[in-house]
Design goal:
The chain is α/β, with parallel strands linked by helices and 235 residues long. The chain has nine helices and six strands, in the order αβαβαββααααβαβα. It binds pyridoxal-5'-phosphate. Pyridoxal-5'-phosphate binds next to loops.
């Protein structure tokens, strides 16, 4: 990754995922973020961090490491934060787009450009999802309740990962699937071919995208045994 980043022309925008990388689930460690940030600073790149799963990897706080460390080092950056998943508000288009500028003049230019785009794209944003998030975050009790639910979601996703690994350990012991447990968030690659994906769909009624990316939230205690047996049958 560093080798490639070291070839990116200065001034280019570099899109990074804040945590729970989609589709791989493979995140940068804190030390790896620091290495990437060093290159961003050296080459004068403009980081654009897409943060769609904050709270799904380690915790709300720890998942912000990359955003915060980048913010400490660069003069300009863009952050797109989504509430679709961590607030369960997928249909409400709730989130925040943040531009960091190095001075007030640049901030005014960026703001007027952004408002022009907003005006031509959607004019006025949907309000109710954002209003719900504001109410929750502004109220200590509601915030704590939401944090508990967020922790619950994270715990469940990790449990599903352990469950599928245990199941595949029994049905397909010759194959190493341990990467599934090292990945964070909702997604990871199963490591199956498009032909095997087609068989999973047609013969077993299991749906995943052709790349073999799975959404671990679809795994439950009731279907994991059937899922692991089906995967073993097609590989
Ligand atoms: C990395 C990433 N960013 C953004 C989104 C979409 O966010 P939103 O629902 O806020 O458009 C997704 C998935 O839906 C995603 O995986």
């Amino acid at each position: 990754m560093l080798e490639v980043l070291n070839k990116v022309p200065s001034g280019d925008v570099l899109l990074l995922h804040g945590c729970c990388h989609n589709p791989t689930g493979m995140d940068l460690s804190a030390g790896q973020w620091d290495e990437v940030i060093k290159v961003v600073v050296e080459r004068g790149l403009v980081p654009f961090i897409d943060l769609a799963y904050q709270g799904f990897a380690d915790s709300l706080d720890e998942d912000a490491y990359g955003v915060r460390a980048m913010f400490d080092r660069v003069p300009e950056m863009i952050v797109a934060a989504s509430c679709s998943k961590n607030f369960g508000l997928y249909r409400e288009r709730a989130g925040a787009l943040t531009f960091v500028s190095s001075n007030a003049d640049t901030a005014a230019i960026v703001s007027s450009q952004a408002l022009n785009i907003v005006r031509t794209m959607y004019s006025l944003p949907p309000d109710h999802g954002g209003a719900a998030v504001t109410i929750i975050l502004d109220d200590p009790d509601l915030r704590n309740e939401w944090l508990a639910e967020l922790n619950e979601m994270r715990k469940r996703m990790k449990e599903m990962r352990s469950m599928i690994i245990a199941g595949l350990g029994k049905t397909a012991p010759d194959r190493d699937f341990s990467h599934i447990e090292r990945a964070n968030g909702m997604f990871c690659y199963l490591g199956v071919s498009p032909e095997q994906v087609a068989r999973l769909k047609q013969e077993y009624g299991i749906y995943l995208v052709d790349s073999g990316r799975i959404n671990v939230c679809g795994i439950t205690g009731d279907n994991v045994e059937y899922l692991c047996a089906s995967i073993a049958a097609v590989i």
